[in-house]
Design goal:
The protein has 347 residues and is an alpha/beta fold. It contains 13 helices and 13 strands. α6 packs antiparallel against α7 and α7 packs parallel to α13.
């Protein structure tokens, strides 16, 4: 299905009183109530590079929308890499969601410039009315829109930037996300620079730790109720990041490409020269580490194991290695991960 949406949405011509009444009836947060609103006029957009030609058709898996001219008011929804991409470019959006204040790589000064920081989380329904109230001319939503009706409703507010094809969330290319957003904003060169600098930051970790080349690594998360997920599955974001850090691919990672779940009888396949497991709470860590089967794993028995719980300041690494990889989050993650691994003293 393909449809074209004009740059100015129907919301832009709704009288202010009617819009306020609609928002009140909808019970959704707006810049004037639950959300955290910055001063008007705080939006920042670097000068255009002149490489992107408008009108620009945004081809997504759910359809097409058209940017008639360079966007100036960008709303961001979904996972953190969308916000990260804008921050890397020095672009301040007009709308974002609640989780974006949580990340250790996020500049709080930059974040304070967002006009409407909604209290809505990723687990809540999309606040269409709240987004519309900020009068965006582009909605950045890569790797987020779940179905065509949602895409169409968002497109009725403003053109929507989504992925050209649907890809598993842990296999999204953070480089492609950055470049896709950069092209839409006529900041392709700046995006290329951001990607290059991020890759160089990861490469420096590899250069500073040549011993990684002789070692394998397994990273997993114990979700307690649903069991363990193998994060460094072959072909995924986490494996690509650790390979770029210099680690040797773990042959066991091939077993978790189709299904990341680690059944109890598969615990032995967590084996590697270094094992990192994230836990949703300290009790889960204690329980897992008390099991004889887990204790028998060579990296656990030999002190090559790192267990990180949700209350650890570095626990955000688990998000980055699953769905949150970006030009700003990955350099932070690989540096912290390297420091924690090296602290094991097993090199």
């Amino acid at each position: 299905m393909a449809f074209t949406v004009p740059r100015r949405s129907r919301w832009s011509v709704v009288p202010a009183i009617a819009l306020a009444a609609l928002l009140a009836l909808a019970g959704c947060a707006t810049p004037s109530d639950d959300g955290d609103a910055a001063s008007p006029g705080a939006t920042a957009l670097p000068p255009a590079e002149g490489a992107t030609q408008y009108p620009l058709t945004l081809t997504t898996w759910a359809g097409e929308t058209v940017l008639e001219q360079r966007p100036e008011r960008i709303a961001v929804i979904g996972f953190s890499p969308n916000m990260d991409a804008l921050e890397a470019l020095g672009v301040t959006p007009v709308y974002t969601m609640a989780e974006e204040s949580e990340w250790p790589w996020r500049s709080q000064e930059w974040l304070s410039g967002v006009e409407f920081r909604d209290t809505v989380t990723r687990r809540d329904p999309i606040n269409f009315e709240g987004i519309a109230s900020t009068r965006p001319d582009l909605i950045v939503a890569t790797n987020w829109v779940q179905d065509e009706p949602t895409f169409e409703r968002l497109s009725s507010i403003a053109p929507v930037l989504e992925n050209p094809t649907q890809v598993k969330g842990d296999q999204i290319s953070w480089q492609d996300t950055q470049r896709m957003i950069g092209e839409a904003l006529d900041l392709s060169a700046a995006s290329d620079t951001a990607v290059t600098e991020a890759e160089q930051a990861i490469d420096r970790v590899a250069q500073e730790n040549p011993d990684y080349a002789d070692r394998t690594i397994t990273i997993a998360t114990d979700y307690t109720q649903s069991g363990i997920d193998y994060y460094t599955a072959a072909g995924g974001t986490a494996e690509a990041a650790t390979r770029r850090m210099g680690f040797t691919p773990n042959p066991l990672a091939e077993n978790f490409t189709a299904d990341a779940g680690v059944a109890d009888e598969q615990i032995g396949q967590l084996d590697a020269d270094v094992l990192v497991v994230f836990y949703t709470d300290p009790a889960s860590k204690t329980a897992r580490e008390a099991t004889p089967l887990f204790q028998s794993l060579p990296p656990v028995a030999e002190g090559r194991y790192l267990g990180i719980t949700i209350d650890d300041p570095d626990s955000a690494m688990t998000w980055v290695l699953r769905r949150g990889a970006s030009v700003t989050s990955l350099p932070w993650t690989v540096q912290r991960l390297s420091e924690r691994i090296n602290a094991l003293g097993t090199a």
